# Entry
Amino acid sequence: MTDDSQWDEGAPGVLRLPSGRLIRGRALRRPLPADGPRPTYGVYLLGGQPPSYAWESVWLRWPDFRLPADRERAREVLRAAWRRSADERVELACGGGRGRTGTALACVAVLDGVAPEDAVAYVRRHYDPRAVETPWQRRYVRRFS
# Structure
């Protein structure tokens, strides 16, 4: 990694957006990777409040297999994550790292210029083939702008 403000593109969970920005998706049920840098900003997509972290973070109330409780706030938080990913190590994470995290990554991809109807396929191809688990999560991404 040449720039310590960015993720290593080859690190687990790191998604390269079309603009070249890097953002990491992660499963909170798994331990934080032992080697490599820590996030500078994290967005935690959970039904209940997460523990505090040593880096700046925000909690977005988002129950498992569902959609964000406050969609306008979700739009603001994901937009901030996208903006910050230009020069910070941003991670998006939920319990399993696929459904909510994949949905949020697909929404960030839309903000980065991926067509909403292509964003789920983009995240499945470049992050996890099982990302975005439910039909309503896929619909949420298609309607996200």
